[in-house]
Design a protein that fits this description.
Helix content: 25-40%
CATH class of the largest domain: Mainly Alpha
Number of helices: 7
EC number: 3.2.2.23, 4.2.99.18
Organism: Halobacillus naozhouensis
Shape: globular
Family: Belongs to the FPG family.
Strand content: 15-25%
Order of helices and strands: HEHEEEEEEEHHHHHEE
Cofactor: Zn(2+)
Largest sheet: 4 strands, antiparallel
Pfam family, one: H2TH
Number of strands: 10
Radius of gyration: 20 Å
Length: 269
Amino acid sequence: MPELPEMENYKILLQQKIKGRTIIDVDINRDKSINVDPENFMNQVQTQKVAEIERKAKHLLFHLENGYILVLHLMLGGILFYGTEQEKPERTIQIRLSFGKESLYFIGLRLGYLHLFTQEEAKEELADLGPEPLNVNFSLDHFLDLVKERRGMIKTTLVNQEFLSGVGNCYSDEIAWHAQLLPERNMDELNKAEKVQLYQSIRFILPRATQLGGYMDQPLFKGDNKTGSYHSQTYVYDREGKPCKRCGEKIVQIEISSRKTFHCPQCQS
């Protein structure tokens, strides 16, 4: 499932491609991928300029010139592609926003969605999200205050979107590895130095993964060499049986709350 770095990468690239451009046509091939009547959706979206693209947690928000907002959550299996009809992947397209010869294709939205909201509705929809870990105001003191009363495991805490926005299965493992902490450690067992290191690891892993385009291996557009570059740079995620990049011990996979979890049994404690 796309997490903060993947969606931040999409945001940055799409700002270059479609910000300020007009949506001239809309195709909806799966009504369940939207939240309003298709005719209403098309009436509010078609002919509108994309005024701004914003990311909140794992969501992308397409701000339209008329004040409406398209809120995207790709969920498991969802991807985006921008390009011509000839360039798009041979996949089922749930929604297409056309900008002329090129379109933005929403693919794999079986669990994901593209919902149309007013500004107030969008604010209410995303109200339960925790702080953004890449925000300049997300300080160490703020983090230490957040974890003060936390009792759950590191893994389950990091993936809790009400605790912290945008971290999921992949980056919770990467952060725990970088902090040299086992993902099943309980937050209330950590000393201050370990909590400080956890914060520093969050602030290291997420920007690094974003800079490398995240771990999804499907390019956003033809010639996109950035998206998915982190896939080959992961420290532990999806590397079961491979040597740890820090100590050489084999990476193991376990399950925590039904989530596959990767860690090094030697240099994480």
